Amino acid sequence: MKNILISLFIIASFLGCNDNQQKADLIITNARIWTGNESSPYAESMAIADGKILAVGENDAVSSFKNSSTKVKNLGGKFVAPGFIDSHVHLMTGGRSLLSVDLRDASTPEEFSNRVADFAKKIKPDEWILEGNWDHTLWGGELPNKNWIDENTKQNPVLIMRLDWHMALANSAALKYVGIDKYTPDVEGGTIEKDKDGNLTGILKDNAMNLVLDKMPPMTNEQKDKSFRAAMDYFLSNGVTSVHDVDGLNKDFESYTTAKKYRINGELNVRIYAARPLNEWEQLKDMKDESDDFLKTGCLKGFVDGSLGSHTAAFHDHYSDKEDDKGFFINVHDDLYNWISEADKANLHVLVHAIGDSANHTLLNIFERVIKENGIKDRRFRIEHAQHLVPTDVKRFGELGVIASMQPYHAIDDGRWAENYIGAERIKTSYAFKSLLDANGVLAFGSDWAVAPASPIQGIYAAVTRRTLDGKNPNGWVGEQKITVEQALKAYTKDAAFASFEEDVKGTLEKGKYADFVVLSEDIINHIPSKINKIQVLETYIDGKSVFSLNDDK
Questions:
Q1: Which of 517, 437, 500 is nearest to 243 (CA)?
Q2: Phi, psi at 5, each rounded to 5°
Q3: pTM summary value
Q4: pLDDT at 358 over 90
Q5: Is 84 helix (H, G, I), strand (E, B) or coil?
Q6: Rg for the chain, CA atoms, rounded
Q7: What pLDDT does residue 553 have?
Q8: What is the pLDDT of residues 522-541, one digit of tens each?
Q9: pLDDT in tens, 21-80
Q10: Domains of the chain with bracketed CATH
């Protein structure tokens, strides 16, 4: 009898322990889950409670977390990945672009002009026309002129951006509003374009755009709300659960203050890592840290140069199509060094834009100097874009621990015309994804939205195939730089989380991490590479809650 009682006690104790095991609010079952965890990359089922992952594994093992109140969702073999992280967005301007004139695919000057004219008819007098995101290469390379739009925008100031945001077209009303005329001198790090007779064309490059941007009326609260909500909906529809907003604490865009309001109201559905301009590092150092699981600060975004498409990216040698033009530096070396060094001493996270090979080389030199002077620590310097590198600089990313924060969609866009700008030799290390990985570098992928679509699916397609948008490179533009789907997925998840010091809480589907994940229409890893761009985001989950469903959207 004594032995029987002991046995019953042991059984009761075991059952009691099992009863005390936390039960799941939701179990995803019968799925093909890519966890991002190299030790166990695939699973069938996932249990979630209180917004966190309880367990990931086989169906039978995870079913033990089920009780009568657990919701079970059978995905019927659908592919699941960690929520995508877009490592480089312009959140508020991107949201605003969804509500403004769309010039991205305007393929003729006439279409460009007509779209602006049609949009002007829909808005009130004195309301600014912004964004646009035009691409002059689509109609042969001629830059737009204010004469194309002046007649139909007399009552509306216009500042519409080239899609890379390093060149803009202002109409006469906008130029008059801010006091720019043909006698206005160029600014350091920017140019005011004039025709052969010395008249303004309306084109402003890089820092010259600030002559207008700094005097524009600020966005109203209503405009901010509409733009911010449009941006959130857009991200979620693309499976993006976290973004690194490089304009997040910029006073001209104020996406952080809007995000903070949404967070207080419990309406913030996308996790945000918000950057402040690098030259304002002291303000960020003194800013009260209010970071939480949805809204985080602590990083700074700076610039070295402009962009390839605007001929403002800084190169060692001149542009192939324009003698005596090597681009230019937006900020001088000493300023960059001082800002980066002081920010690093204050333990702030430094992210700096560099596109041309001279800009990247200069920035790597500054990073190396700061590392030597300030000592070894976990600083995770980032180069935003890192598009064109001299071969000897590729290995320095791994050696210095510098993260290459890159946007693969740019490769299949720029690849249409980049060789005309910089020649056949320099493009060999343009968007050098594979070479950087082979040199033990870390890639964090993003979009640069609204410069490019904030679609990780399109980004993965670009990184894996490198097929240019014009269809002229079916085997891949600079095909030796193609990477695998899993490498691209990692750059959009695990390593993107690493790029914001958040790898312990997201980026992979593991016990204890946020239950942020995306359900895709196809197994992206085993899909035909050339058809990856047709894959759809079926559902997006944050904290284990569905925040987007394609079926609901139809």
A1: 500
A2: -65, -40
A3: 0.90
A4: yes
A5: strand
A6: 25
A7: 60
A8: 999 999 999 999 999 999 99
A9: 789 999 999 999 999 999 999 999 999 999 999 999 999 999 999 999 999 999 999 999
A10: 1-77+510-554 (2.30.40.10), 89-213 (3.10.310.70), 304-483 (3.20.20.140)
